[in-house]
Design a protein that fits this description.
This protein is an all-alpha fold and 233 residues long. The protein contains 10 helices and no strands. Helix 1 runs antiparallel to helix 4. It is globular.
Amino acid sequence: MIYLLIVIVLSYLVGSFPTALIFGKLFKHLDIRKHGSRNLGSTNAFRVLGWKLGVLVQLVDISKGFIATLLISKLFYGSLPFENRTPFQDITIVQIIAGISAIIGHVWTIFAGFKGGKGINTAAGMLLSLAPIDATISIGIFIVVLIFSGYVSLGSISAAFAFPSTLFIRENFFKVEIAGYNTLIYFSIAVCIFLIFNHRANIRRLMYGEENRFERWWKIRWIKIEAPFKRKK
């Protein structure tokens, strides 16, 4: 039990590293929590700190998921303190637990008053470690949606939904045997719901046409995405 607790705590602390906050103070001498959407995610970093630092923030946040899933999980020794009824090996279960801990740390960071980002990048790092093909497809969908809409939030929501959908389609329609599919599909659905829930404010703004759009990333404009609702003036 003690080894699993060590993995959980260390993964949470790695996920809690407030990348956007530190880089904002280090390179721009500002507190990103007081600018833009006041979020510690890479989207606000792009908006407030510029694209170069935004990319750096994004890469570091993705690496947090990698570090927890692939490295910190290796500190686990012995057997799980509960019965493993999944088709996964014990170490894979530990990797999943480590990845989830890192996501929780990113969303509720202990270093910034338990207010962090929305978890998309850290989740991407974890999922790339566990299911690289499905995660890569989801990232591709994020890029396509971003190019066609200019909305990072819409791309993130689409990517979150795409991951379990890709697993399901590959396993059931293309008959690709995915190791541990019957467990991974439910886990991925739970992650999808969690990430979409964290974007609930963005969904509301998208519905009312109030979401900020990244004009420089909106490359294909012949498809217009209209808001289904409009607030009364």
